[in-house]
Design a protein that fits this description.
Pfam families: HxlR. With 180 residues, this protein is of the alpha+beta class. The protein contains ten helices and five strands; from the N terminus they run H-H-H-H-E-E-H-H-H-E-H-H-E-E-H. The radius of gyration is 17 Å and the shape is elongated.
């Protein structure tokens, strides 16, 4: 999977929980998925539209009522849903608020090996310095990222590494997104 597609998928907070739920066997009906994910109706609808636009979900023709449609994964959607399910396997319920933030998963993906700030930014060309800094700080506060200083370098530079849950998630994601 291309990193740009992955960034696009994770830009909607509920996309991965929806995909993971579908992969794990939750029925593709709106009410059932809403209950399984715990998303608000508005956020859920936006995420579903986004997943359809990306070609990961489609309406199941011939099934469901027009006001209560049923959805199914496309072939590409099945691949991404399997990845989302593997992420859910290594994360806890308390981890999902941080995982639903726009840049958390792409940044963790780029941390499949220890990296400097500029190296992470090069791998994620659409991220701003501020967004990257905030993502790293929020993951560091959660103990998913460890920041160390390379004092041998002149000037000294920070090195970021994915650790604990962040490291496990990074190792799950990196091979499928073209890193590792």
């Amino acid at each position: 999977m291309d990193i740009n597609l992955f960034v696009n998928i994770t830009s909607r907070a509920w996309a991965l929980p929806i995909l993971s739920s579908l992969h794990s066997g939750v029925a593709g009906r709106q009410a059932v998925l809403l209950a399984a994910t715990g998303a608000s109706r508005t956020a859920f609808a936006q995420s579903m539209d986004h997943l359809i636009d990306l070609g990961l979900l489609e309406r199941n023709p011939g099934h469901g009522h027009p006001l209560r449609p049923e959805f199914r994964l496309t072939p590409l959607g099945k691949t991404v849903a399997a990845l989302a399910d593997r992420i859910r396997d290594v994360a806890t319920e308390e981890d999902w608020p941080l995982l639903r933030r726009s840049w958390t998963l792409p940044v963790l993906t780029s941390l499949h090996r220890p990296s400097h700030f500029t190296e992470i930014k090069q791998q994620l060309p659409t991220i701003t310095d501020r967004a990257l800094s905030q993502s790293l700080k929020s993951m560091e506060a959660r103990d998913w990222v460890c920041r160390s200083v390379d004092s041998a370098a002149r000037p000294p530079r920070s090195i970021y590494s994915a650790v604990n849950t962040g490291g496990r998630i990074s190792q799950v994601i990196a091979p499928d997104v073209g890193f590792a």
